Amino acid sequence: MPEIDPTEHDIAELGPKIKDVDDADELQAMLELEEDGEDRVPVKTLIEDRIEKVESEDDGEIEPETVDLSDRTVADVANMVRDIDDADVLRDLLEREQAGEDRKTAKSQIESRIESVEGTEEAEGEAVTEVEYVPPEEKYPELDHPTNDKQWVEGTVGAEYRDMWVYCETQAGELVDVSKEMLGKARELMDTYNEEYNERERVVAVLIGADASDHVEEVIAYGADLVVYHEDPRLERFRHQPYTEIFCDMARAGGDLAADGREEVAWKDYHEPRYAVFPATNNGRDLSALVQGELDSGLASDCSGLYIENAMISNPAKVGTAGDKKEFERVLHMKRPDFSGFEYSTILCIDKPNRDFHPQGASVIPGSFEMPDPDYEREGEVVDYEMALDEDWFQVEVEEFDRLSGGVDLTGNDVIVAVGRGIGDDPTRGIEQALDLVNAFDEADLGLSRGVITSSYSFDGHVEQYVTEERQIGESGQAVEPDVYIAAGISGAIQHKVGCDESDTIIAINTDPDADIRDFSDYLIEGDLFEVLPQLTEAVETGELGAMMEASDD
């Protein structure tokens, strides 16, 4: 029986655990357990890939000249050719692949490495290979408005871009907390940016809605230099097309490429924003994708970190010459947990020689940045943006709806009690006990791991209302930083860590003393949450945990 039973974990939790297993026999036993149990294809693929990696490592160093490519996966081939600098050896590998398995992806990996090696050799000899550029009107002669990749967008090259734009979302007449957090971070970034590059670029707050003007002073207090807002009674509720059209029209107003008839405006003398950030809320995720698509740029979604630095890039598609390098300035580095759950990825949005990608765009997970202190003495410029809205954008009318009293905002609590898949033996009782502990504190609330949200657990009606996506903590949920974070039955995948690792004190409750959450917890209680939670509740009610609460800020 292997130490890890894959049927007890989802793939996000299993990934970080399995990468440390180096015994092929144990991995094979895990694979058999999965086949006899859940039989999930992604999990089996994960285990099989790990088996192949372990077995290849056991084989010792691979000799490219003699390796049997039929015994190697495409991933093995890609990893092998990465370290080969001899073009002749690579060509021999390519010929053997063509004569054998003839896998398209494997051949592409070898060909790309050949191109990279030969490009480097030529660059050293001062003979470089330029990437061929075909103008869009030649590439797409059948289109009326050709661009490099799409038909209905502006393809710009060499335009001027300035400022960081922040979409400030409101709900039920209030500026949501993540909007304030983004304004504070944008202020910090642009202050540093202006000092480093000797510029005077601004933080621009964008407000759209039926009560947009009500929030102008507040967004200035939280860091905006310029507020551009559009107010219309029809925009009381978020609507995809009008919100997208308004934001993009603002972004394209005036500017240095106004040959399409746009008039100059006093508040903006550049083509499009340099950077654009949005909240990673339900509405913000929709709007960010639509806006960035319409502006023909890219989007890094669900980010938890942002910083601006120069970046040295060698990709021929970006620098225009194989084997060459170029330093790109003022690049927004957008940090997010990658999909494997193993590590963070940093996303960059880089121009091509004949193609600009602006604004550099990101959506930000609520709670990722500190809440700034507002300064209501700050002054800023305000633009009441006038724009005719097409009636076709409002063909669907919502005649009646119920508004929730306030939703679930877990940020700002002193204590968060979060439960994970450890409640699986008795899900309803697990939620009940977590709520008992929550109620024992003055300022506390209930959080959930993604495993609970995506599970097929059956909950009794009186607790079912608490099991909603709004309470999810992690990379695709909320990020919290309470004084005390109690994680009961949560393994500690990196996606969850993103949402809670800024907490002052983390207390984990887990039957597995080697669970990943141990690595970033201050205290680990080895035990069954069904036994530990009631004891904690009693300790709080009798004041025995008071000393720890007072020390949590130290």
From TrEMBL:
<dbReference type="InterPro" id="IPR029035">
    <property type="entry name" value="DHS-like_NAD/FAD-binding_dom"/>
</dbReference>
<dbReference type="InterPro" id="IPR001308">
    <property type="entry name" value="ETF_a/FixB"/>
</dbReference>
<comment type="similarity">
    <text>Belongs to the ETF alpha-subunit/FixB family.</text>
</comment>
<dbReference type="InterPro" id="IPR014731">
    <property type="entry name" value="ETF_asu_C"/>
</dbReference>
<feature type="compositionally biased region" description="Basic and acidic residues">
    <location>
        <begin position="99"/>
        <end position="116"/>
    </location>
</feature>
<feature type="domain" description="Electron transfer flavoprotein alpha/beta-subunit N-terminal">
    <location>
        <begin position="164"/>
        <end position="398"/>
    </location>
</feature>
<dbReference type="InterPro" id="IPR014730">
    <property type="entry name" value="ETF_a/b_N"/>
</dbReference>
<dbReference type="Pfam" id="PF01012">
    <property type="entry name" value="ETF"/>
</dbReference>
<feature type="compositionally biased region" description="Acidic residues">
    <location>
        <begin position="118"/>
        <end position="129"/>
    </location>
</feature>
<dbReference type="Pfam" id="PF00766">
    <property type="entry name" value="ETF_alpha"/>
</dbReference>
<protein>
    <submittedName>
        <fullName>Electron transfer flavoprotein subunit alpha</fullName>
    </submittedName>
</protein>
<dbReference type="GO" id="GO:0009055">
    <property type="term" value="F:electron transfer activity"/>
</dbReference>
<dbReference type="GO" id="GO:0033539">
    <property type="term" value="P:fatty acid beta-oxidation using acyl-CoA dehydrogenase"/>
</dbReference>
<dbReference type="InterPro" id="IPR014729">
    <property type="entry name" value="Rossmann-like_a/b/a_fold"/>
</dbReference>
<feature type="region of interest" description="Disordered">
    <location>
        <begin position="99"/>
        <end position="129"/>
    </location>
</feature>
<dbReference type="GO" id="GO:0050660">
    <property type="term" value="F:flavin adenine dinucleotide binding"/>
</dbReference>
